[in-house]
Structures are given as C-alpha cells and as structure tokens.
Amino acid sequence: MKEIEEIYHNSFGIAFYWKKGSQVISEKVQLVFRETGFYLTLDQMNQFCTLIEDSMVENASCENCQLKNSCHKFLLKTPCNQIDLAVSMKELKSIKDLIEGSLFKIELEQYVYGAGLN
C-alpha cells in the first residue's frame, strides 16, 4: 500500500499528500527538494510562489553573470518565517516549477471534482 499520493514531481523534487490507511490527507502538501521538506497548506504554497517571484525579480540584475545558475547567492524566503534558503537560479526555477505544477494539478482536480461537476 502506498503511503503517499503524488501530486507532481520534477527532476528536483516531489509534492505529495500523505495517506493514512486508504484516506488521503489533503489539508496540507508535503514538498521535498534538496534534502528539505516543507508541509504546507494551499495558502502557504501560494505565498511561497509569490516569494519565489519576488526573489526572481530581486535577482534579475544577475542576468548577464556567467555564474548565475550555479552560485548560491540567492536568498529565498519561505512561508516559514524562521527559514530562508540559499539557492542558485537553476534551483529557484526548479522550485518554482515544482510549486506551480503542484498548484495547477490541485486546482484542476478541485475544479473537475468540484465546480466542474454537473
């Protein structure tokens, strides 16, 4: 029996719901990437998405730097006030994809099995 219900994954990480027996616990999403795990509500996931966008805008001045994809000088704030992550631009984009892909699949499922039902 699977203990998780996968939502989305990419080459950098995975997002999933935990299962308790056959029941999917969908109040929070477990994100795991770079030896780090976050257990977040949908509001926190959306907040994280905004924080990623803010970090990308703030670090846009590094666009012409040859090291921008490998240096870890980008500070990424998280929905957990006490935790910030040092990430490369490549990692930042991968985290963004992981969260946006997860949110898309969650919202699509909510629509299909919620408002979209006739």
Write the layout of secondary structure elements.
Blueprint: E1 4-9, E2 13-20, E3 23-33, E4 36-40, H1 42-58, E5 74-77, E6 84-87, H2 89-115
Antiparallel strand pairs: 1-2, 2-3, 3-4, 5-6
In short:
With 118 residues, the chain is α+β, with helices and mostly antiparallel strands. Helices cover 37% and strands 32% of the residues. The protein has one domain.
Keywords:
about 120 residues, alpha+beta, 4-stranded antiparallel β-sheet, two-stranded antiparallel sheet, elongated
What sort of overall outline do the alpha carbons produce when their principal axes are compared?
elongated
Spatial strand order of the main sheet:
1-2-3-4
Briefly note the structural class of the backbone.
alpha+beta
The figure for the number of domains is: 1
- Beta percentage is 25-35%
Residues in helix, %: 25-40%
Rg, nearest Å: 16 Å
Total of helices? 2
Describe the fold and architecture.
This protein is α+β, with helices and mostly antiparallel strands. It is built from 2 helices and 6 strands. The strands form 2 sheets. Strands 1-2-3-4 form a 4-stranded antiparallel beta sheet. Strands 5-6 form a two-stranded antiparallel ribbon. A hairpin with a 6-residue loop joins β5 and β6. It is elongated, with a radius of gyration of 16 Å. The relative contact order is 0.18.
